[in-house]
Amino acid sequence: MAGIYRNLLIIDDEAAMRHMLRLVLEEQGYRITEAANGVEALARLGKEKFDLILSDIRMPDMDGLTFLKHPEVAVLDATIIMMSAYGSIDTALECIKSGAYDYISKPFKPDEVILTLRKAEERLQLQHENVSLKQALSRYHTGFSIADIIHTSPKMTLLLDQVRKVAATDSPVLIKGETGTGKELIARALHSESGRNGEFLAINCSALTSGLLESELFGHVKGAFTGADREKQGLFAIAANGTLLLDEIADLPLELQPKLLRVLQEGEIRKVGGTRTEKVSARVVAAAGRDLWEAVQAGDFRSDLYYRLAVVDLHIPPLRERPDDIAVLARHFLQRICAREHRSVPLLTDIAIGQLRRHNWPGNIRELENYLEKALIFSVADELELPPLGPAARPRDASPAEDLSLKSAARRLEEEYIRQALERTGGNRTQAAQLLDLSLRALMYKIKDYGIN
């Protein structure tokens, strides 16, 4: 089904050629972005996702083949078609070997370009269907796939690498992160990567009273208490060979903590009102929105249980520490919400992305999704109109010591200035270094340090 992949980047040093292609392809419904050479194109790639790229070969500053072989281009999902008036069979073969989908010799007729793009779209659609099928099979067996976690930042890539490494073990895992960062998604990813054939179950430890929570976790025998007219299996038993997520573990009542510790140490439970123990095989994953060690120091949580739960400790960075994820998450949420509401997806402009990146997002990913849903309700234009964003409030879960750290504040300010300079110069690092009064070498080091793409 052609016509889905519409973001197209044209790279050519001849303005007349870019203009002609824009006129022809906009009539076919493509959304066109232009670049005069490979350097300018790389800067565009840092700001927007392109499905298709038409690139000339002979250009100043950075030619088409150098662009094609660039590390940032090699990892793109985009389909690249090369163009040249000076080509030969050897040139065409080199382009294909370097990752291009096709090669067009200049001069060409508009219909040739349109036909090549249509074929490329069909190929993209087949690839998309293949990926979707694989993900559907993964969800069928595990209920979730780690590929469902949308990200582009180095911090999240590192976290998901850790998830893959620890997933196959039976050790308990403690997932830490502010409200709205996606702790349950990480727990589901652990389960999907573990190869366990049991269920993934989750329970919020702060949502039930102590008595009800004990019954939910361990089950009860008939007559154990008023209303217990039949025997009940607990979540530990139901999640046999699966994964049990204990969310908001810091709120687990003190009287239940020794019983959970016994499960972790001995691998067995005793139902409420029961006299015999039962072996369980569920893998325990705990999640905490507040600092669990602070709860230990306050006397609200047992230190021995803490150490048993935190055999593996995973921390999800808040959204403000991974601004590179904001654009991809925003586009993902817009597509999902628009699909649900049966409406076309509006364009998320560079200006809008800049607004989103500058906000602190104290509610993290959940706040971003809710905000975009609100924006879609009131936006009727082809470009998404963003309602005013409130002041960047301090996250509820952040401690005053964290918030008042001059060192952390200085790093955040430095990172923001570097990002603004790169945006202002269209990704030109030499010009950005001049704006920032830094050497290019120092700027490159800081870009790497902050994980800026």
TrEMBL record:
One of its GO terms (biological process) is phosphorelay signal transduction system. GO terms for molecular function: ATP binding; sequence-specific DNA binding. InterPro entries: AAA+_ATPase (IPR003593), AAA_lid_NorR (IPR058031), CheY-like_superfamily (IPR011006), Homeodomain-like_sf (IPR009057), HTH_Fis (IPR002197), P-loop_NTPase (IPR027417), Sig_transdc_resp-reg_receiver (IPR001789), Sigma_54_int (IPR002078). Keywords: ATP-binding, DNA-binding, Nucleotide-binding, Phosphoprotein, Transcription, Transcription regulation, Two-component regulatory system. The keyword DNA-binding applies. The modification 4-aspartylphosphate is found at residue 56. Residues 7-121 form the Response regulatory domain. It comes from the Bacteria. Residues 149-377 form the Sigma-54 factor interaction domain. CDD domains: AAA. This is Sigma-54-dependent Fis family transcriptional regulator. It comes from Pelovirga terrestris. The lineage of its organism: Bacteria, Pseudomonadati, Thermodesulfobacteriota, Desulfuromonadia, Geobacterales.
